[in-house]
């Protein structure tokens, strides 16, 4: 994996070789599974893995926002994670929610965090060890150094991107992008309007991964984005519906390619599609 800009991916073999350490109370290594709910985790998970529910553990339920700094510190400390811990994240949907959690870790200044390449599905499909045991680790104090606002986009940043013609990457399905549907099949609709942010390019989150959920090579990812005019020379804003799929694109751009000006608009279409006065477009980008 040396062709990536940063050492932020680990293989399933790498994790398997360290399962004993992940199950130890020593906080040097921590393994965390992140899913939209915990049902899958309760059925089976990698030995030593902590289970985070993306919605209830990593979201502020009153503000529909990421955790406040104190809540983030409390969550990590309660699960035996220190500022020096190497944290490996993985989850369902080819790491949608794990990538979001990775981004949140980075936002709050945790440097040594990695993704398990391929996520939960890859682990299970290739018969790596699983268990139903829930680990218990000694609580510790966690002191976050963030937030690091340089990797996060807000409404005003999107408005600035529109005005300046900066790259906007919409990672949703073509049907969502065109405004034909408001959410992927089976998921709740979270916006009043369908469509996309003016000027956005529709580059699916899945385009950066292989069929088995592992990430494509750096050269493949670079060529994919370059074909749509995204080369890292300008601030690039990634967005989706609720910020999880765009975290995969942000991870590919910022971490794997090293495009330091890539940012994640975690408000995404849930915010933009409900804003009064915010411009949208429908149909294909070239319509």
How would you describe the overall organization of this protein?
The protein is an alpha/beta fold and 287 residues long. The chain folds into two domains: 9-147, 3-Layer(aba) Sandwich (Oxidized Rhodanese, domain 1); 150-272, Rhodanese-like domain (Oxidized Rhodanese, domain 1, 3-Layer(aba) Sandwich), CATH 3.40.250.10. It has twelve helices and eleven strands. The strands form three sheets. The chain has a five-stranded parallel sheet. Helix 6 (92-107) crosses helix 7 (119-125) and helix 6 packs across helix 11. The longest helix is centred in the middle third of the chain and has 16 residues, at 92-107. It starts with 8 loop residues before the first strand and ends in a 15-residue tail after the last helix. The model has no long low-confidence stretch (mean pLDDT 95).
């Amino acid at each position: 994996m040396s062709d990536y800009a940063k050492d932020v991916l680990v293989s399933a073999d790498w994790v398997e070789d360290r399962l004993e350490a992940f199950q130890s109370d020593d906080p040097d290594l921590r393994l965390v599974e992140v899913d939209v709910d915990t049902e899958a985790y309760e059925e089976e998970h990698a030995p030593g893995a902590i289970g985070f529910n993306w919605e209830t553990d990593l979201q502020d339920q009153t503000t529909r926002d990421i955790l406040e700094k104190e809540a983030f510190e409390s969550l990590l400390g309660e699960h035996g994670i220190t500022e020096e811990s190497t944290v490996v994240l993985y989850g369902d949907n080819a790491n949608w929610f794990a990538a979001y959690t990775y981004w949140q870790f980075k936002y709050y200044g945790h440097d040594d965090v990695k993704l398990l390449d391929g996520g939960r599905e890859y682990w299970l499909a290739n018969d790596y060890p699983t268990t139903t045991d829930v680990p218990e680790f000694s609580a510790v104090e966690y002191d976050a150094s963030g937030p690091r606002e340089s990797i996060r986009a807000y409404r005003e940043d999107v408005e600035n991107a529109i005005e300046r013609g900066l790259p906007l990457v919409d990672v949703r399905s073509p049907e969502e992008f065109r405004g034909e549907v408001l959410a992927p099949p089976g998921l709740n609709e979270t916006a009043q309007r369908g469509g996309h942010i003016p000027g956005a390019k529709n580059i699916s989150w899945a385009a950066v991964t292989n069929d088995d959920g592992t990430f494509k090579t750096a050269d493949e990812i670079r060529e994919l984005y370059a074909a749509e005019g995204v080369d890292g020379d300008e601030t690039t804003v990634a967005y989706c519906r609720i910020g999880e799929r765009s975290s995969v694109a942000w991870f590919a751009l910022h971490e794997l390619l090293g495009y330091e000006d890539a940012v994640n608009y975690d408000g995404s279409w849930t915010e933009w599609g409900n804003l009064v006065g915010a411009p949208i477009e429908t149909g294909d980008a070239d319509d």
